[in-house]
Write a structure and sequence with these properties.
single chain, mainly alpha
Length: 121
Amino acid sequence: MRALIETAALLSAVLGVPAALIVYARVREVGTALGVLLDFLAAAGLIRLSAAMSWSSILGAAAVITVRKVAAYGVTLTERGHRAPDVPDARHATDDPDATAATAAPDPADAPGAPGAAGNG
């Protein structure tokens, strides 16, 4: 009986890959395809859990389900256009316009001896 359960778990995990590829080919959404793959892996973990009621099996099934939830959430945010906020540049860290001008590159026309510079003409 245990061999049959192990085979069913393996079959579930192996069939998850082509199922996810088929879903991706149909809908072109990574999040949906990843969800299908991770659902198959979760099913394999739960099938295996039914054969061996051990803490390692329970933790393995819980880890797969946790990864599935976190990955699906991250992919969903990415597909909706959400992303982590950008860290502002040091030049733009303040609202003071003089602070950004002070850190900007100097204008070559202002250099001493340049044509049109103050005091040269």
